Amino acid sequence: MAGDTPGELTSSKASHGEGVLGLLKTMNRDEVFEALSQGFCQHCEAVLEKRINQILNKRGSETSLSNGDAGVASNVTPVPDLGTDRALTPAANFDILLNDGLGGTVVDNGLSEEQKEHIRFSQVGRKKDFVHTERVDGRPTNVLKGLELHTKVFNAKEQNRIVEYVYNLQRMGQKGQLRERTYTEPRKWMRGKGRVTIQFGCCYNYAVDKNGNPPGIIRDEEVDPLPQLFKQMIKRMVRWHILPPTCIPNSCIVNIYDEGDCIPPHIDHHDFLRPFCTVSFLTQCNILFGSSLKIVSPGEFSGTVSIPLPVGSVLILNGNGADIAKHCVPAVPGKRISITFRRMDDNKLPYQFSPDPELLRIKPLVVSPTVNSAPQGHHQKRIINSSFVKAIVQQNQHRNGQVSKDKSDRETAKTTKNDSFLGNDDFPPLGGNNDFPPLGKANKTGSRR
After folding, report:
1. Which in 88, 276, 277, 286 has the greatest CB count within 10 A?
2. CA–CA separation, 218 vs 171, rounded Å?
């Protein structure tokens, strides 16, 4: 372990088969705590954390069983194995409250919401060094400058909830339960044509419509406001330093692709400010960039740069990557959902638009320099420090001190946890009728196909 200097006492104890365990037995609790809180290398800290968590979790489970309430023990969430990379992947499915940084509730696995959020934040990969030089107006230009790719922003469980939410919105649109211009499902008359779109916050025209309105935001048309779940996604992206608090989105468009659907080459309209972002779900696909993209055949395009978009990732478009390079999505290989979040130019806001107060007070997460120390263009690696070990020990001591409370206290704690999970600042469970309060006036003409 880094920082250790073997001494005579250590050698003497080890020779009698006692080693570190023998030394620990001679120390009081405060001395043990001090010894375990400093001077370890990252690898040794990870091993130590793993063992502490396993012991505490086992002790908590055994205590619950000894109290005659096996049902409680079976519902205890295991402490995540923080000593392995696998425990810090999306498979870990940490749920965190998407609040404004005011959380702090201690949950069954001994981690507060703040601690879990910092773990999830440290997992996000951030690539910001995209470079591709083309001649633009006679000058060599990095047409990808301003692009950023943030991976592992939404874990597998959250992705499933978002996808099911989108499918429920699609069913609502098909039944005419959304405002008329909110939902569009064109007829699939050829390859690459017919992706479903659902837009919130503003009505956007891709081309001149039947009323002669030009491409851009139609200010006198109303669509449904941003759903609550999408606002939670925006909160996370601002809190996790993916989107700047100076450009918080107030509109979005959902694209639902079937296999073979695409988006042709384009530059996003300047009725929307920069940066904006696209979140990807269900199927990884490639997005093409270049100052000159060509249509090869229906749904097929050629470009100079192809960037893969992993599921759960967020692509930020800004600078040259948003204004000089065109982008397109060739025919996708399977079912795909993307959600593009954008902020409208204040001079283009719909006439009936009202700012959402919930999106006016989002504050970026405050992180220590060690947590956010990965250089630009490289994926951040898991960082565990001694203060985090200390926090886990303290939180688990607090938890295990409460295990002996009577059953009514445990039921109260369980109710409190459930109320917290179902709060307005979390991803709501999906699939029930109550998940989808009316978003606006129903389309009286029925579904639009």
Report:
1. 277
2. 25
